[in-house]
Model the fold of this input.
Amino acid sequence: MAKRRVMFTFPPDLIKEPIIYNLGLKFKVVPNIRRADVSENKGWVVLELEGEEHEIEKGIAWVVGKGVRVDPVVGDIMEG
Amino acid sequence: MEPLNLCDFCFSPLEAVYDYKAMSRGVSKEKIASGPLSMWRYRGLLPVDGDVVDIGTGLTPLVKADNLGSELGLDQLYIKNDCLNPTHSFKDRVVSVAITKAREFGFSTVACASTGNLAASVAAHAAKAHLKSYVFIPSDIEQGKMISTAIYNPTLVAVKGSYDDVNRLCSRLVEKYNWGFININLRPYYAEGSKTLAYEVAEQLGWRAPDCVVAPAASGLLFTRIWKGLEELSMLRLTGPVNTHMYLAQAAGSSPIVNAFEAGTLHVHPVKPDTIAKSIAIGNPADGYYALRVARESGGAACAVSDEEIIEGMKLLAQTEGIFAETAGGVVIGVLKKLAASGAIKKGDLTVAAITASGLKTQEAVADVVRPFVVQPTVESFEEVLGKNVQV
Done:
């Protein structure tokens, strides 16, 4: 089983959607939330995804397709 | 100590912490002054144990910028010129510490992802330390930047894709390979190298903290560590109390921290960068939250300038002080100009502007300055073409 640490950033129109719940339902991925800050206009969640590598990949692609920004939890790695 | 950058529980970034009481027994102004003429004179304030990897970084000039100060209405303006580090940027400070730690941890390979300054510095330090290095660059990077990295003979990997793709690739590689990834698993140590810029400024000012600092922010790490460095010196009683106002500078085309500052929030919302200041074009800054706190708690601010103002800033610095900075330097001078004009920085404030890298790497940004007079090799032609422009 693989683990991936990621940060989801939600646009205002997706804040009320149960995207993380559905991620767990649709794919064989266990989301484990570690930190989050969600308000009316914006929200971010730092979480660990556990599952087979290809299931995590498919799950992340689905989340991105919904309009959520997915980043490595360490922020941007590429520097000047 | 371990090569770890995140807390296992909440995934927040980890930071090096010190026993300052113990540290104070081994650090003094005299001991520092008798140390090497490099950033390693502050070794007692850095998280290293063994031999250091030093290519001659630091103790860069702190120049009294009277010409620029006169233009901006500032009487006590100084430029910290980090263009004069061995690979021409402040990155040598952070990489020197990170590679030292990589060797201590027993890594035989180090890696980074960069658009230029970090790449060259990692490759140079790895060469000095006899370590293998993998440097990931975007495939469309300028030839000059590739050469200034490739000369040190790293394994240069050009990645086809967006910056986000490179970020994702590297976050996967660090899980798979036992490498010292400079700004991932070595990041807590890498970060500490930035403090030496603050130490030097304080020592060069006669052991005092400036009234104001203007520094560029990409990830926000340099900005937070300048503050940490000044605070540490005060805590160790090497300087008096710190009343420095910290001003953070970003390009308007990549200003997630400035956006959050202006919105009055501590949440830094990621952006898609679109600016000529590529060396500080980070859309999702890892230390954005902490940089915001420093700007607020120090009574400073966060400001952004347009690409046009960046170029103006580069030219102004070059044409008043003879310092050719890269685009990030243009950002700093552009923001400094705004802060002076608005009265946020006052005429008598002892102000330090951090110029973090040389313009030789981003010459294309100001290529329009090249407008030579073309003459035949005769006095007649010279006087005919230049006409009244000739001053006797």
In short: Chain B touches chain A through 46 residues (CB under 8 Å). Chain B has two domains: 62-88+194-367, 91-190.
